[in-house]
Amino acid sequence: MPNPPLSSAPPSVPNPEPQRERVGYAVVGLGELTSEALIPALRTSQHAYLAAVVTSDIDKGRAVAGAAGLTDADAYVYDDFEQLSTRSDVQAVYIVLPNNLHRDFVERAARMGKHVLCEKPLASKTQDAEAMVAACKAAGVRLMAAYRIQYTPEHWAAKRAIAEGKLGAVKLLSSAHTQVEPTADTWRLKLKHSGGGPLMDVGIYCLNTLRFLTGREPEWVFAAQHQPTDDPRFTEVEESLSFMLGFPGGVIASALCSYGADKTTSLRVLGDGGAALLDPAFVYSGLKLTLSGEGGDTLVRFPNYDQFQLEVDHFAQCIRLGHEPYTPGEEGVQDHRLMDAIYESVRSGLRVVLPKLSGTDLFRTVSNQPAQIQPGR
Amino acid sequence: MPNPPLSSAPPSVPNPEPQRERVGYAVVGLGELTSEALIPALRTSQHAYLAAVVTSDIDKGRAVAGAAGLTDADAYVYDDFEQLSTRSDVQAVYIVLPNNLHRDFVERAARMGKHVLCEKPLASKTQDAEAMVAACKAAGVRLMAAYRIQYTPEHWAAKRAIAEGKLGAVKLLSSAHTQVEPTADTWRLKLKHSGGGPLMDVGIYCLNTLRFLTGREPEWVFAAQHQPTDDPRFTEVEESLSFMLGFPGGVIASALCSYGADKTTSLRVLGDGGAALLDPAFVYSGLKLTLSGEGGDTLVRFPNYDQFQLEVDHFAQCIRLGHEPYTPGEEGVQDHRLMDAIYESVRSGLRVVLPKLSGTDLFRTVSNQPAQIQPGR
Amino acid sequence: MPNPPLSSAPPSVPNPEPQRERVGYAVVGLGELTSEALIPALRTSQHAYLAAVVTSDIDKGRAVAGAAGLTDADAYVYDDFEQLSTRSDVQAVYIVLPNNLHRDFVERAARMGKHVLCEKPLASKTQDAEAMVAACKAAGVRLMAAYRIQYTPEHWAAKRAIAEGKLGAVKLLSSAHTQVEPTADTWRLKLKHSGGGPLMDVGIYCLNTLRFLTGREPEWVFAAQHQPTDDPRFTEVEESLSFMLGFPGGVIASALCSYGADKTTSLRVLGDGGAALLDPAFVYSGLKLTLSGEGGDTLVRFPNYDQFQLEVDHFAQCIRLGHEPYTPGEEGVQDHRLMDAIYESVRSGLRVVLPKLSGTDLFRTVSNQPAQIQPGR
Amino acid sequence: MPNPPLSSAPPSVPNPEPQRERVGYAVVGLGELTSEALIPALRTSQHAYLAAVVTSDIDKGRAVAGAAGLTDADAYVYDDFEQLSTRSDVQAVYIVLPNNLHRDFVERAARMGKHVLCEKPLASKTQDAEAMVAACKAAGVRLMAAYRIQYTPEHWAAKRAIAEGKLGAVKLLSSAHTQVEPTADTWRLKLKHSGGGPLMDVGIYCLNTLRFLTGREPEWVFAAQHQPTDDPRFTEVEESLSFMLGFPGGVIASALCSYGADKTTSLRVLGDGGAALLDPAFVYSGLKLTLSGEGGDTLVRFPNYDQFQLEVDHFAQCIRLGHEPYTPGEEGVQDHRLMDAIYESVRSGLRVVLPKLSGTDLFRTVSNQPAQIQPGR
Question: Are residues D62 and D114 in the same domain?
Fold first, then answer.
């Protein structure tokens, strides 16, 4: 018998609810993330389960379905997406497609009355993101932007520490999210599919998390980018981009993102009475939060958990209880508007002033905060 | 679309083989480890899948089966264990029961011709462990001791660094594995069920890993323990135990284990040209290996992986290819003999000299090393 | 007898040369840095020694002199600075005064034919810095800007790793240097004395080290700052400032500095084949350099050393051997010009384009690199 | 002007008292420790200063004296040690000689009425250590054992955390102190000079610090060692040694020491409510203390300080105020007795039971605790 796990585990056995009481998801798009993270999370979640897969290649779909314990009948091709309308056991779809395809599938899902969990960025263009929000509203279905970082205990502990004044008044923030895209043949590097370069895919983590942690919206932005002229990977999108944000009260944040630099995921918050460091800040597991203040640096420990499970379970609970998700489509739209401003600053070389937005957590559902995992081990 | 994972992931999609080509496991015992780690691992493994569950309570069994996507018919109670003999899709059983029950179920599984993966320690008594090995041999089935630490890339990288002389000649080792058992009502604290205290359950990691890393068998052992007289948890077994091992060539190791001390899992190897530190060394995820030598301390990085998946996949491959597992029953028996000597030293207060065993990796199947995950990210 | 130190120590005993062969320094200004760091460094250096002190208060000067093993006659007040002209044992002066006083004392020292080691920033205004360079040149004495970060083994190891391509092509950099100035009554917060806020005093480390590590000069700069209206500390200078630099080849750096945020000193370099992290990056001892690449993160270890000793010894050797110091006055002037551009960007809200400068290490004496401490322990 | 140091520095300037009010030390023995650590500490201490040096070679003595700002007249050879009796400015001698010479010089110093700070171990034999204590007592001078680890803020913070129950009840401890002695030609490897191998020189840190942190005396000891037969370095003393200590209440500690293994200095304390880790634990600077408990691991930060300065200043204050030092000779004698028992266990292969000693901090001067540096930065 092995030793018990580090964590004081969730209590009851069996942990998950019976499948028939859980929310069935159809996952649309069978890339690496789906097979490595989402399907495992759905198969071990509390409130959700994998009910169907949708892909371009029926053979691949059936193979994945089979591997996941489903039947051939649970695999669909994109053209047959609407067949899910007859599947009452599929209450939600999870869109894991190239950005430019999000809108079409979200709208089709909404028309079928299916709730939608959509990967970030919400779309390849702001107007598409806005249309998705409108379509879901019109159809009376929930739309959640898959910002997993707004569901992890580490980021929530940092947000709470800031809100409770543990760092004193926040003054400066910085963040970096970089990685190397090794080859040119990915949709991420095609402007039409992605809508932009590293900003859209990795920089958005910096942007979204800076907004989440401060709870505020920036008042201005400045940005610069590098797009090499001799690298076949970067004929359509930038290689690296750096942006600076001005938040209310003179708080300044700076961020770096890249598809051409060594993997780094980091976020630092500096207050006049302490500091918080998340490093790594955005990876799928092993996030580390250090809170610094008088007397020392504390690495805050949490029990093991699965980031994707927290996400799919939150949305499943929203569906069952009729709640708006903590990160609704509007949260994703706001990032799109800010990314537009960032690219505008790159183009113009000028600081771009944004519409003034007072208040905190303006685009989040503060009445429906995600379930919290407490520090401990 | 989220950013790709840190790791250069295993290549093909779908990752797992089709279920019909994988090895079906029946898991016997539905405790926390099973629900939190083994079933998830079996559901996302490459070469194995969960085919049945066996437990004391049919309702719980059916609930777990259902939660795992199986049917009521896949749940069995202990008395009906032999019904698995008709299940040709169940090729292996994974025994996750209190130590004293291992022997009975291993022998019954062997009689059905099922291969057996058995949790550590192999039994509650050495003679039971020996009997299990004999029974499986007689029945022509494979028996693997579930020493997950002998399947992780971090421990293999440490073992290789030692074998290749990266640390110079090894001189000293130390290890600790401690945790707090909060309440008295666990079978681990009942001598009849467990066969012993923390040594049997957590100290065995120190012992086994010291043997694995050096590849050698100790020549003598000295040990001391503490068993409080006023703590209801420790009426039958020790609270804490410390042992010292003498390895060939004058290499000395010392180890600490406890059910009454803060969670610690650590192992250090000191050579005359460098050092290796595993800390944490034995937890389920997030192991860290630091190799030190001229010029600095290198934290070796590996792609994400699931420790239990590596274990169940190794045994599945052994079954399909007709190989002896890397950690056969004999490896488990040897730990039992050494734990007997440790307890004998505690009782006598004397150093206990062990039978001399020359050679390296005497109880492991060196011809069938586990598949290796290479450093990288 | 204690155990020998970690480091393989410098060989001969006694380590320092006989005092009469070393270079005598007069230290001008007896603040905290002088008493805590410079005098100890001078007293244990290899090639230098403390010969005199100059201050505003003769009693304090005599007390410091006495405590340092000098006599009352070795203490001078500022007005008597020129009495050092008769002290042939004083070959160098180390200026540790408020920024706006640097120029006067440097020019007076030059007129006496004394070589000058001057704290950073070189002055409170660019034109003063330029005048100081001219005055020393005219007088035939050496002027060294006290950029200790250009003399430490950690920063040199990072610079070498970059130059040798260990990180691949550098893409992005970030740095932060922040601290809390607790009270308003320091000359650092008086514009006339300091010439500016945290940029001049702590942000200059980011700026100078980014230039040092890349070896390049920025082509443009953008900056923003925060100066609260209700904080008595910041009536004259900014509280926090963030700047972005565009280096040749599209390399972008961002930096944060503050007098109102928790102590942080950090610098990160991201290449397409690896990364370097210095954290802490700018403190007086315990700098940590981590180089990341395939296979892991290596914390590079160095023997113990004294940063200030490296500085005063380098300059002492320059004086004895007739060499230009590695960081001559011109290096300090260039930072002044860049800080002017940063403040101009703050004022205008616009990106400021800088004169194009090709080549590497343009303001450093590449023929006279500081003595190198090799990794080891 | 450089940025202020991390620490909130000791307040007044000049930090040290005037030299005539400080305690003058004669340092006896001019090895590496003296030149690299003790003389710098004495030259920058608060209450002490270097007044004279004593060595075997008058030229070396004069060179060291000169380098330290003393005159030729301040250098003495061992035979002229008694000339210090006329030096009223020399109130203390610091003995930094091979262990077997300690007794002679301590007794000679006592006869001159000089107070003695003596390096650890106090002697090469227990009876010499006892004689030293008696001689100083008879002469009415203070004798302090130079256990610098009992004067650092990190170790005191750990001791306090234990005493205040921050870790709960202490259950287990482990420690390691190892290093490679590269060549055979050091007195440390000569039994006559040293009295023993790594136990006497580095293992004593483990022993002494385990006693200091728990405040208790062990009840039994078991030990084993390795002395290779083919290594010219270890013809007289052991290469590696491991010992286990039984403390009152069933607390067990294990320790490793070596002259043949990679530099490691570590100490871990495991309680039922938390843990303390010192790593590095025994080096001259950069000690790190991590306290673990519910919610996380806290790295406790302290302002910069000089370990040797704390030691020499403590003893200087004892002399001036007429106090017994916190670590009097008796503390050193107790370690000798325990090391005798450890070697006896090695020889006999048996556990050695020690005289029962009740109470806490039996050999320390609890009424004269060293001045405390508080956590902070």
Answer: yes
